[in-house]
Design goal:
Layout: H1 9-19, H2 22-29, H3 36-43, E1 49-50, E2 65-67, E3 70-72, E4 76-78, H4 92-102, E5 106-108, H5 116-122, E6 129-133, H6 139-151, E7 157-160, H7 170-175, H8 197-200, H9 214-220, E8 225-230, H10 233-241, E9 246-249, H11 263-276, E10 284-288, H12 294-302, E11 307-310, H13 312-344, E12 357-358, H14 360-363
Parallel strand pairs: 4-11, 5-6, 6-7, 7-8, 8-9, 9-10, 10-11
Antiparallel strand pairs: 1-12, 2-3
Helix pairs in contact: 1-13, 4-5, 4-13, 12-13
The structure holds ligand FNR.
Ligand FNR binds next to helix 2 and strand 11.
């Protein structure tokens, strides 16, 4: 179908499922094990309802906000997803260009198909990019990557902490083909290719990474440091204690530990505890996983998130319609945001709060 017939983000997924090359579709769409967490990530949003207010002047709606000090057009970002060239010949650069045109942030993955510098070179001078880091066993390599990122103007270091080993994604294992990743760090010869694309390229990840390492990261960079893949209230509190600048509540889009809870659910548990302890302003809280509609974004913001990350929908848009597809997908979300904020009775992001939300369906579940 023509791009003008894409009415929501799920439409891109539908077209992608029917047109993408099988290996790429399998790698992008898969979750771990039986894909329960993958499904619950989105389904959790269905258990939260709005309490819209009427008779508010909603003529002018402002979607803009800030994330880690950067002003952005809207409270969502393109999160890090590996292997962009499986879906499009320009890979992650497609996302860079669309993010620039739409004034949103792109998080660059460690395992991008394009080199880090290629992706940064593609950005405009005003554009903000973040870096997602898989921590290499070889800390010298790690330090080089981090320092180089800072020199190149990266505005946030997102350390992925939910993947000491990559989860078992069986759809992906069945299709076994592996992209040429010769430029990507890692001891490729040791990789077990029978485990699918993801596992084969992840053998460099440091399984010994732990809370004591945070100090070291702090000592090598001035960039804000954010943990990506926090899955409990307990670890969120430890993140505050260790002086992190933020966390991303995330289970890696349901690709790691099966039956890890939906991030929205963790957020609902976490915020009252942070507030009770007076810690709600100590770090910025992000969330990703299953965000497909502006209503999902609005719910997360109302419940205390500073912004949300979106992964697969942009990969599907990129793989099916390239630059125009990603631009359109972002535009759809913005249009949905404006409409739904009007209907909710709010005119700016800072007005969103839990008073617009009913979470009773969660509590009684
Ligand atoms: C990911 N994700 C991910 N995360 C990360 O820290 N490093 C990575 O290399 C990748 N790679 C990756 C590839 C693919 C194909 C997907 C779908 C996801 C996880 C990603 O950053 C994010 O947590 C989820 O994608 C969010 O869920 P949704 O929006 O895809 O539902």
């Amino acid at each position: 179908p023509d791009l003008s017939q894409m009415y929501n983000l799920n439409d891109f997924e539908f077209v992608a499922r029917h047109t993408m090359e099988r290996t790429a579709w399998s790698y992008y769409s898969s979750g771990c094990d039986d894909e329960i967490t993958l499904r619950e990530n989105h389904a959790s949003y269905h258990r939260v309802f709005f309490k819209p207010r009427i008779l508010v002047d909603v003529t002018n709606i402002d979607l803009s906000t800030t994330m880690l000090g950067t002003k952005v057009s809207s409270p969502f970002y393109i999160t890090a997803t590996a292997l962009g060239r499986l879906g499009h010949k320009d890979g992650e650069k497609v996302l860079t260009r669309a993010a620039a045109k739409q004034d949103i942030i792109q998080m660059i993955p460690t395992l991008a198909s394009c080199s880090f510098d290629e992706i940064v070179d593609e950005a405009t001078s005003e554009q903000t990019q973040w870096l997602q880091l898989y921590v290499n066993k070889d800390r010298e390599i790690c330090e080089k990557i981090v320092r180089h990122a800072e020199e190149r103007g990266i505005k946030g270091l997102f350390i992925t902490v939910d993947a000491p080993q990559l989860g078992r994604r069986e759809k992906d294992m069945r299709s076994k083909k592996i992209e040429d990743l010769s430029h990507v760090q890692g001891d490729d010869e040791e990789a077990d290719r029978s485990q699918g694309a993801a596992r084969a390229i992840s053998s460099f990840i440091d399984t010994s990474l732990n809370w004591n390492d945070i100090k070291w990261f702090r000592s090598i960079t001035k960039m804000p440091i954010i943990l990506k893949g926090v899955q409990t209230v307990e670890d969120s509190l430890l993140a505050v204690e260790h002086g992190l600048d933020g966390i991303v509540l995330s289970n890696h889009g349901g690709r790691q530990l099966e039956f890890s809870k939906p991030p929205l659910e963790v957020l609902i548990e976490l915020m009252p505890i942070l507030k009770q302890k007076g810690l709600q302003d100590k770090m910025e809280i992000y969330l990703d996983g299953g965000v497909r509609r502006a209503t999902d974004i609005l719910k997360a913001i109302c419940l205390g998130a500073k912004g949300v990350g979106i992964g697969r929908p942009f990969l599907y848009a990129m793989s099916t319609y390239g630059d125009a597809g990603v631009f359109k997908a972002i535009q759809i979300l913005k249009d949905e945001m404006v409409m739904n904020m009007r209907l909710l009775g709010v005119t700016s992001i800072d007005q969103l709060s839990e008073k617009y939300i009913d979470t009773r369906h969660f509590q009684t579940r």
